[in-house]
Description:
By secondary structure, this protein is an alpha+beta fold.
Amino acid sequence: MKAVKVPALELFLHEMIPLAKAMGVGVELSDHRALVLTAPKEQNRNSLNTAFGGSLVSLATLAGYGVVWELMRNERNAARPEWSIVVKESRAAYRKPVIGDLRAICERPAQAAIAEFKEALSRYGKAKLKLRASIVENGQTAVDVTAAFVVTRPAAPALRPA
Length: 162
């Protein structure tokens, strides 16, 4: 049997965000353009046998979170502190029911937005990044989610006099 490499993001989500594991979230694609997450409908269906709205918005939010997580993970400064990533605000627009498995696509932000984000993070130790993720089925957008993620670094420990 051939070994399958599970992406670091998927392992992180399953370990640190139990809902992601319960939903069956997987990473379909992570490249320079977008992050695509999937989840099986069976674990995320409602009483109408369509995808549950809470699962749809959760998957889209996780896709945005994943984009920020990968951005922070890919920083080249090995001495960087651990970062905290939280959702500050989000808004969802449900356009049509999802009949099959769930698929969320979050496009990576433009280089200018990334540069502005990194500059604020460097200067203030805190920065906000706005992202848009979509739940797509058969080439059609079923749900649009816009969210603002805030990244903070822990405060440096206070120095005690010797």
